[in-house]
Amino acid sequence: MAALERQIFDFLGFQWAPILGNFLHIIIVILGLFGTIQFRPRYIVVYTVWTALWVTWNVFIICFYLEVGGLSKETDLMTFNISMHRSWWREHGPGCIRRVVRPSAPGILDDYSYVSVTGCIIDFQYLEVIHSAIQILLSLIGFVYACYVISVFMEDEDSFDFIGGLDTYCYQQTPLEHVELKPVKPVNVLCLSTE
Question: Mind telling me which residue stretches traverse the membrane in this protein (predicted)?
Answer without folding.
Answer: 16-37, 44-68, 133-153
